[in-house]
Structure formats: C-alpha cells, structure tokens
Amino acid sequence: MSYRFPDTFLWGGAIAANQVEGAHLTDGKGLSTSDIQPYGAFGELAERQPNDFNIKDVAIDFYHRYPEDIALFAEMGFTTLRLSIAWSRIFPNGDDAEPNEAGLAYYDKIFTELEKHNITPLVTLSHYEMPLNLAKQYQGWASRETIGFFATYARVVFQRFGHRVKHWLTFNEINVTLHEPFTGSGLPRDCDEQTRFQAIHHQLVASAKAVKLCHDMVPEGKIGNMILGAMLYPLTCHPDDMLKTLTQNREWLMFGDIQARGYYPSYMTRKFTEMGVTLNITEDDKQALKETIDFVSFSYYMTGCASADPEQQDKADANMLQMIANPHLKASEWGWQIDPKGLRYLLNFLYDRYQLPLFVVENGLGAVDVVDEQGAIQDDYRIQYLNDHLYQLGEAIQDGVDVMGYTSWGPIDLVSAGTAQMSKRYGFIYVDRDNQGHGSLKRTPKKSFYWYQSVIGSQGETLTEPQS
User: Which CATH number covers residue 106?
Assistant: First the structure.
C-alpha cells in the first residue's frame, strides 16, 4: 500500500565536517581530536608528524567543492542537509580569546549555498571532534572548564548564524563516550569510570547550556539532542534476559532521559553506587539541566540482543557497541545486522517515552561499490536497505509517531568515522578516491541517486513493501 509522507517532512542526508571537508589546517583551523585519529575512531592515536598521511586531511575536499555537492543534493530534491561545524575552525585552540573569522566566513558561504537551493540546514555543534588543545591541556570533557569553552563557541555560532539556521543539534551520538572516550570526550582510552562519567556529566551540562542559549538567541529555532539508537532485544523470553535487556538499554537511554526530562533518572542512583562513581553535581548544574530539548534525534543502523548468560559468545560486529547477534537477521559486509522493523520499533519506543518530535538523522548502508564498464554503480543493495527502512518509518508515522524528517548517512561517499576508509561507501554519489588517497575526486551519481530522487519527489509514495 502506497503512503504519502506529510508535506512538512524533511528529506535529506547527513555529513560531518571531519569526514568530508578536508582542508584540515586551512584558513586558520586548529588541530582537532579527529586529526590525530588517522585510522578512525577505533584505531590508535598518532601525534602529527611532518608529511604524514591522514586521509581526512583532504577527505572528499568538500571544503572547496561544496557548491558542486550541494547542487547534486538539490538535484535529488533535498529539503534539508545535516552538517556539522568544525569547532576548531571557529576556535582553533578551543580556549582562544576571539573566534577565527575565516572559519565563520566559510560556514556563511555554506549556508548561502544551501539557501540558493532552498535546503534547510540542520547543524550539529560537535560531531566526533573538539579542538585538540582542549584534550591535551584540559583533559577534554573531564575538565569543568570545557563547559565554558563550549558555551562560548555555541554563543558565537548562534549569534553569527542564528538568523539563517533554525534547526540545531548539540553533540553527535553523545552516548559514544561509553564506548570510545577519546572520540566522544577527548579522554584517554583507559580512563576510569569516575573520570568517564564526570566527563559525560560536564558534556550534558554543556549541552543544556547550549539549549538555553539557542532558546534565548534563536527564539524561533529548535534544538535537539542526538543519541546513538542502540536498541537491544532480549535473546530469549527468560526473565533474566528481560532484566539484562532493560539494564543495557538504560545505558544509552540515560542520555535521552536527562536531556528530555531535565534530571538524572532514578535508576542511575543504583548504577553509580555499584560502579563506585560519585559525581560532582553543583546546584548550577541541576538548574542548567532543566533546560530541555525541543526534539529527539538519533542514528539508527542496527539492533542487537542482550543475554544474562555469560557463556553467550555469539557477538555481532556492532560498530562501537557490545551486542549479541540476532539469529533472525542478516548482516552487511561489515557485519552490522540489518533490521528495518527495528526502526519502526525504536521510533514508537522513543515517542512513547518522551512525547517529543523525533528526527532520524543517520541511517544507511556501508558497502563496497563496484564501478562497471560503463562507469555506473548499480547499488541495488543500498536501494533495498533504504527502501525497507523508509517504509518502516512511514509505518511509524501511521502509528502516530511525530517524525520531523530523515537524513540518510553519507549522501555522498565520505571517510568512515570508525575505520577511516573510503571503501566503506554509503553515498548516493560516488567519489573517486581510495583508502590510500588516490583518485580524481570526481563525483558520479549512483543508481540509488535517482531512486532517492523519485522517493523524495513522490513524498514516499514510490516506496515498496519489503519482501519478508
């Protein structure tokens, strides 16, 4: 049965500065934490050396090629583009007295180009990067001082762009510090739980302060959080598995609970006690957290299972997460289990929990694409993946869930966050560059480009019912 999405539904894609821009020291930009992760979020850190290679230094050169790329997004029919601002372009060291005007001017040009094509920007303030100096000199988010540096950055950005950007997010996948503390908070990978959760607390307070700044400075704007949607199912219906699943899901739901409700959930009291964690939470912190988000956004790539059985070893390759494989699901080339119905389930679950508008801001399939003899890319596997997920998103809207929009991850091929590969491609647009940095950077629309164009043009009516 065909379904027409609401006319207000926002269609688009999502990119991140450190994965597309390149120009890593151009126009006064400082080094970021991402710049010393040459092998991605899961690899080893590396101090910068002269003439060393980091594929993200150029990435796909969006910094210089953005007019071409945005024109291609417009050709697909995008009504929104999720992008991030590189914090170290605005404050190269994080603690600078004044912002870098060249960095601000660059994003002015980006927003002008989006306006030319009637594409609404959805801007993330911090997407898996922060000024490296803050990680080195202040221990990243372990320091309470970093809250003030982030607030200063947010204030400058809202003042400069608030008249043209009305949709904002604070931190990308804010719960990632649980799994990759350097990527999420600039912390050493071997940090203890006390340090990790204190840093998380500082980040949550900073997020809330940014929400208040946005409400005060961009009164007609909307600002949301962004969490890694890591829904787990119980492996069996045994009560122990049910309780284990509840506990593990709360590990990431805590972030949404605090940002949507304005206080720590009661279940965290026991968890902190069991971990031996005592947070330094001031009265000002408690007051700041009361400023809650306008909508909940999240990434969705997979689900997994939880089990109380310590002998259960059938693990799924779940990016940064610890998940047990679901025996009823197939997996991608990278081992990520594919569960379109899980998106419908998660949307209903989150809407029941928060009663706030939801925004699916990342979803996509990483795959090896082959260019055929005619120079085309026949990515039917990607079309099927996205069709099936969007169909279930439509089902959730019909269930009564308020969904603002959908931005597929990586509408143009970009550098993988986890592994810094180009070969793990998500895009509707092929970029001629390999893992060693070779290639012309030429852009070529894939078969999925024209498929997504038709989906947007029909407001979803061309989606087909998944084959179960």
Answer: 3.20.20.80
